[in-house]
Specification:
Layout (H helix, E strand, L loop, with lengths): L2 H15 L3 E6 L4 E4 L1 H6 L22 H10 L8 E7 L3 E12 L2 E8 L1 H20 L1 H15 L5 H30 L8 E2 L2 H12 L8 E7 L6 E2 L1 H17 L7 E9 L5 E7 L29 H11 L3 E7 L3 E8 L8
Parallel strand pairs: 7-9
Antiparallel strand pairs: 1-2, 1-5, 3-4, 4-5, 6-8, 9-10, 10-12, 11-12
Helix pairs in contact: 4-6, 4-9, 5-6, 7-8, 8-9
Amino acid sequence: MDTKNTLAELHSDFFQKSNTFFLILDRDLHVIDMSSHFMESYQLEKKYLIGKHVKNINLNINNSNDLEIYIQENNSRIHDGFKVIIEHPFRGNEHWNLLVFKMDKGYGIIGSNISVFEHQIDLRNKHTQRVLHDINSPIRSLLGLTNLADNSGKDSNALVKYFELAKQCTHNLSGIIEKITDSWTLGNNISNTESVDFITILDEVKGNLKFIDGFSEAIFDESIDDVSEFYFNRDVVESLFQNIIDNSIKFRKTGVELFIQIEIIRWENNSVKITFRDNGIGIAESHHQNIFTPFYRVNNYVYGKGVGLYLLRNSIDSLGGSISFESMENKGTTFIVILPNTLPNKL
């Protein structure tokens, strides 16, 4: 058995069939060889690649000039990697991490497709941002309770009542912080689903908002169908109720009784349709296109950072749902949300 030839054949076979991106360059950064599997995936032909400079190969790399500099400056050892975005003909933009090392007569590049990891990190970051945003409401309720306690004088019964309610708000805050911790330490993420009880979640959210300014002025009209066996991410549903109801209260008309109508019905393909209507100040048409834009604010006299609806839509969209709205200035706003049923498969 010719061990040397067999090893060479194994090396060649591995190089050509591996899913990993292998690229060999000469000293002047011209392509000598590239793994076949990668070329087939990206619909590239070897004859059009051999001899080309690395920045001219047809990969639609977003920062190929920077890649050339990176190779020239970091060629003495393997480094942490250089991240690039390569446009795939069918899958769109994909994230790759490239490792560069120097050989006797050129350079080698090993690439790993990290698109899945980048997507997971992005989802988790947005999930954490949304949860952090949702902390605002129980904090505002807690502040509302302290104001009530300050104005209660020496009424010991009222103080005891407010103290117990403050404990409840603090417990809610603790729960939200625990969700953030779990999402990072236990690997929980936005794709986790469970059975959703809309009535319970709505009651909990109203409890969290109970002592914010304006809540006592709101009259709720709720119509919730029997939507048993509905599975979705519970945190997203809770965030949905909290953000929309909170915004209705924030943007209420001064001196006018606030009506908030919430309707939940079974919809097409076993999904759920949730409709929120209010008679608040509404949104001028000139602002409609930017409502879901991060950090966009319709006005500056109502507290907020302009990220709640952006993060909420991102979460809903990533789970296959949709959120839209209709609004007229001085008439009110309607939000329509469709959530798919992510019922687990039963073996």
